[in-house]
Amino acid sequence: MSRIAAKFKELKQRGEGALIAFVTAGDPKPELTPKIVETLAKHADIIELGIPFSDPIADGPTIQGATDRALASGTTPETVRGIIEDIRCANDVPLVVLTYYNIVFKHGVDGFVKSFAAAGLDGIIVPDLPVEEADELLNATKRHGVDLVLLVAPTTTPERLGRICVASSGFLYLVSLLGVTGTREKLSDSIGPLIASVRKVSRVPIAVGFGISKPEHVAEVIKCGADGAIVGSAFVNVMAKYQDNERRMLEELDTFGKSLKAATRL
């Protein structure tokens, strides 16, 4: 059983949902990311690290800004692999990277997965890789014991949903709305029926992302039947606000993370 699967099993036994926290690795500087993860891991059950990429098509302005700061600080995929190694020296929190396929392809699919697995990675999300073209990466993740987390959108057809659910492992990333990442004031009224329809097909836990930015959002998706909530832009906003004050940044992330995690306990 993978570390991600074990975490969801543990949470189910405790009767609570998963809080999955996303940050861009290297934002605002690479040496700070392990400290950020250490802080978030006090409350978050899974940490998602974005590998900065020059054309993040699925991301809104907040995470694009984080990507720009990370790239300006010199963060590369190799830097992120080193960050994961540093995190693993002190923490066993499940770690997932979100990366665009250009980065994976450039490094060689098997080599990329093998090297990150050796560093301590548990899962990979590639938002611009459709399931129809994912066989090579899927085979590589199976070889090296890494979960491949695939995405489902509100527009996903029943046929594609079935294929995605068969291929995905660890958890299924359910995109709550059309568009790009970013905070929202209110979740779509369709989120409940959407979770219910995917629940009928998925054999792995379902985590909802895009627009989840408040404790009440987290509570809502868990009440609607999701196994977890993914929060990204809201954490990144805190990091951007206090990027020149490390102590305050970590304090605010700790407080915010605690409030979000409390909302997963129904």
Which helices and strands occur, and which strands form pairs?
Layout: H1 3-14, E1 18-24, H2 33-40, E2 46-50, H3 61-72, H4 77-88, E3 95-98, H5 101-107, H6 109-119, E4 123-125, H7 135-144, E5 147-149, E6 151-152, H8 158-167, E7 172-175, H9 191-199, E8 206-209, H10 215-223, E9 228-231, H11 233-241, H12 246-262
Parallel strand pairs: 1-2, 1-9, 2-3, 3-4, 4-5, 6-7, 7-8, 8-9
Helix pairs in contact: 2-4, 2-12, 3-11, 5-6, 6-7, 10-12, 11-12
Question: Can you walk through the features of this model?
Answer:
- By secondary structure, the chain is of the alpha/beta class.
- It has twelve helices and nine strands.
- The chain has a nine-stranded parallel sheet.
- Strand 4 (123-125), helix 7 and strand 5 (147-149) form a beta-alpha-beta unit.
- The protein is globular.
- The relative contact order is 0.17.
How much strand content do the residues show? 5-15%
- Average pLDDT, to the nearest integer? 93
Number of helices: 12
Q: Ends: how far apart?
A: 26 Å
Q: What share of residues is helical? A: 40-55%
Tally of DSSP β-strands: 9
Instruction: Kindly provide the radius of gyration, computed on alpha-carbon positions and rounded to a whole number of angstroms.
Output: 17 Å
Q: Characterize the main sheet.
A: 9 strands, parallel
Strand order of the largest sheet: 5-4-3-2-1-9-8-7-6
Low-pLDDT runs of 5+ residues are 179-184
Element order: H for helix, E for strand? HEHEHHEHHEHEEHEHEHEHH
Give a brief rundown of this model:
With 266 residues, the chain is an alpha/beta fold. Helix content is 47%, strand content 14%.
